[in-house]
């Protein structure tokens, strides 16, 4: 999500308490946030739900944006966390309903190779987060948000070498979880 200078300035004003700037900021970033959530979630409705949650988190937590890094970098973390949280919530709801109702939505693993891959990868990322939570954030920022290593190091307040090491290890762990078909 590369945001222009105007959007970055709106974020600074919103963080300082300017409500009009916050409203303008949310309208401006919504299409990018939705597009980014769609990278995580195969179903458009799920991506829209994650987008709304992310925008709500931005509105509630903009005061925490300190301006030490670009707003777009801060936003990547918020959006990635929201999309992953939405995925976990949907997965939990699906498991709860499995015993109560017949399957109403087709399994995306059987309907689309691309969608199935995303779901499998999200499962692998969720597994990684449970086992090695220190690795997941760097992986998401690099491979999903496509940030540069230096930006990730700045955002996570870690040395560049540590970031590269965590990403390498996270990728290795995810590949092991996904198995032979993804190597």
UniProtKB/TrEMBL annotation:
This is RNA polymerase sigma factor. PANTHER family: RNA POLYMERASE ECF-TYPE SIGMA FACTO, RNA POLYMERASE SIGMA FACTOR HI_1459-RELATED. Keywords: DNA-binding, Sigma factor, Transcription, Transcription regulation. Residues 27-93 form the RNA polymerase sigma-70 region domain. Signal peptide: none annotated. Residues 137-173 form the RNA polymerase sigma factor 70 region 4 type domain. NCBIfam families: sigma70-ECF (TIGR02937). InterPro entries: RNA_pol_sigma-70-like, RNA_pol_sigma-70_dom, RNA_pol_sigma70_r2, RNA_pol_sigma70_r4_t2, RNA_pol_sigma_r2, RNA_pol_sigma_r3/r4-like, WH-like_DNA-bd_sf. It holds the Pfam family Sigma70_r2. Belongs to the sigma-70 factor family. ECF subfamily.
């Amino acid at each position: 999500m590369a945001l222009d200078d105007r959007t970055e300035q709106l974020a600074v004003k919103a963080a300082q308490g300017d409500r009009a700037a916050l409203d303008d900021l949310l309208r401006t970033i919504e299409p990018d946030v939705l597009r980014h959530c769609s990278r995580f979630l195969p179903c458009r409705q799920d991506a829209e739900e994650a987008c709304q949650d992310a925008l709500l988190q931005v509105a509630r937590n903009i005061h925490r944006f300190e301006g030490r890094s670009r707003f777009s970098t801060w936003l990547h973390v918020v959006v990635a966390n929201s999309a992953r949280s939405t995925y976990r919530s949907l997965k939990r709801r699906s498991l709860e309903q499995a015993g109560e109702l017949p399957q109403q939505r087709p399994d995306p693993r059987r309907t689309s190779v691309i969608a199935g891959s995303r779901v499998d990868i999200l499962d692998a990322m969720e597994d990684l987060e449970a086992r090695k939570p220190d690795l997941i954030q760097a992986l998401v920022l690099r491979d999903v948000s496509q940030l540069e290593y230096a930006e990730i190091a700045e955002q996570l307040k870690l040395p560049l070498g540590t970031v590269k090491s965590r990403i390498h290890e996270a990728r290795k762990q995810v590949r092991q979880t996904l198995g032979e078909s993804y190597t």
